[in-house]
């Protein structure tokens, strides 16, 4: 599951017993060698979809981690790219990965639930971060994103079709979420990381309540399921006013 450069079992155990912020500070140097990093095929598909929807001037990577989404934004934004994350360790790695060519890149330490920006962005993206927010936190998170977008700007993130109960991944993710809930019931501080708490229908409703108009774009690189539905989509939520 991990490459030789990835974290050891002991390091993962220490991270899992830490807070989310401190856990990611510890994991940051080896994060890109774990399955938790967004796969390159998803990043490439999103970059291609955004290129068709652009151009964009200024972009923000929400919960940027080590900067995989920043690389996507530098390909579709002309003027500037900003990454925000609350882990200093992840930002340190992202800074070492930033490319000097292309649009200016700024890294900011901050909490996505209280973004330190004015409406300065045409595009906000996020990759793999929503599992760190409880469902009750999503309305506030979406209002924060709305507040930093210019009117007409877009908030984009990929979503995969949920695995069916006949799939091994269904039971793997269910087991992971169950283990995390047990861990958080008996250990403090909590480590919020749930894979099955993000329900697309509820998320679309919350986005609309936050003042967005939503669009779903199939990512054709991942094909379709037997019922004809896309295996992966890009959600684009546009600020209406």
Give a structural overview.
- By secondary structure, this protein is of the alpha/beta class.
- 37% of the residues lie in helices and 22% in strands.
- The mean pLDDT is 87.
- The chain has helices spanning 9-16, 20-27, 40-53, 68-76, 88-97, 138-148, 168-186, 200-209, and strands at 56-62, 77-85, 104-109, 121-125, 149-160, 212-218, 232-239.
- Strand 4, helix 6 (138-148) and strand 5 form a beta-alpha-beta unit.
Describe the structure in brief.
The protein has 241 residues and is α/β, with parallel strands linked by helices. It is built from 8 helices and 7 strands. Helix content is 37%, strand content 22%.
> Which CATH architecture?
3-Layer(aba) Sandwich
Number of helices: 8
**Strand order in the sheet with the most strands:** 3-2-1-4-5-7-6
Structurally, the number of domains stands at 1
GO molecular function: methyltransferase activity
Domain Methyltransferase: 60-153
Keywords: Methyltransferase, Transferase
Pfam families: Methyltransf_25 (PF13649)
Notable characteristics:
241 residues; alpha/beta; Rossmann fold; 7-stranded mixed β-sheet; 7 strands; 22% strand; globular; transferase; SAM-dependent methyltransferase; SAM-dependent_MTases_sf; Methyltransf_25; methyltransferase activity
Which helices and strands occur, and which strands form pairs?
Blueprint: H1 9-16, H2 20-27, H3 40-53, E1 56-62, H4 68-76, E2 77-85, H5 88-97, E3 104-109, E4 121-125, H6 138-148, E5 149-160, H7 168-186, H8 200-209, E6 212-218, E7 232-239
Parallel strand pairs: 1-2, 1-4, 2-3, 4-5
Antiparallel strand pairs: 5-7, 6-7
């Amino acid at each position: 599951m991990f490459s030789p450069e990835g974290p050891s079992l002991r390091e993962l155990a220490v991270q899992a017993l830490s807070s989310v912020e401190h856990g990611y500070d510890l994991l940051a140097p080896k994060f890109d060698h774990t399955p938790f990093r967004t796969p390159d095929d998803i990043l490439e598909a999103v970059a291609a979809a955004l290129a068709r929807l652009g151009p964009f001037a200024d972009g923000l990577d929400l919960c940027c981690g080590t900067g995989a989404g920043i690389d996507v934004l530098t390909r579709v934004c002309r003027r500037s790219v900003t990454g925000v994350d609350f882990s200093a360790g992840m930002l340190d790695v992202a800074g070492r990965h930033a490319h000097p060519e292309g649009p200016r890149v700024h890294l900011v330490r901050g909490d996505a639930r209280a973004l330190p920006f004015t409406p300065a962005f045409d595009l906000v993206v996020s990759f793999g971060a929503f599992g760190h927010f409880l469902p009750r936190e999503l309305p506030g998170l979406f209002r924060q994103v709305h507040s930093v977008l210019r009117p007409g700007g877009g908030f984009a993130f990929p979503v995969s079709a949920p695995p069916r109960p006949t799939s091994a991944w269904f039971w793997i993710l269910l087991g992971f979420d169950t283990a995390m809930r047990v861990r958080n019931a008996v250990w403090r501080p909590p480590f919020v990381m749930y894979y099955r708490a993000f329900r697309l229908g509820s998320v679309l409703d919350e986005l609309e309540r936050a003042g967005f108009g939503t669009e779903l774009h199939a990512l054709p690189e991942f094909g379709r399921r037997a019922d004809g539905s896309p295996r992966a989509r890009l959600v684009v939520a546009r600020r209406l006013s």
